[in-house]
Amino acid sequence: AETEARGADRVVSLLYGAEVLKRRFGENDFSVLACVDRAAVIAAYIGDMKTAIPLGEHTSRIWANVPDAARDKLLAASARTRQAWYLALDGRYADGLQVYQQSLDELAACVGPDHHSNAIVHAGMAYCSAGLGDLDAAERSSDRAMRLVERYPNIAGDQRTHVLFARGWVLFKKGRYSE
Prior knowledge:
Elements: H1 7-25, H2 30-45, H3 49-64, H4 73-89, H5 93-111, H6 117-131, H7 135-151, H8 157-173
């Protein structure tokens, strides 16, 4: 299924694996996290938000149950960013914006407000704000995301693309087609 673009089959397989691991190690074990998080991402890529959203929530719950001293706060915040992305893709912009804000707070506590990891969160916030019709907030968020991308030229290509899409979407919604 990995190389044959059979995403739905991969999700089913990962969820089966998660069930087996849950029975053996418990619902909040990292082995379960690995399966659930990957299944959520694949579900999102194939457009199955009804599966991705609860899996993203489960991933965040697993991270929340890790003792604070042992939790990788950057990975936990990144999982929350993906959870917000699933909500945004489902058109649940207010919910997505709220989870993006929580992710941004967590990321800022880990790496500071000017780290490149924050760019994708600001882009998501821009997308959600535009979806809610708050184009001024969308403008501020997309501008912040762009400034972070410009500051870090070696940012991952997929993150840069996400930021550029969000900025383009905001400019389009504002009627600024030439930009």
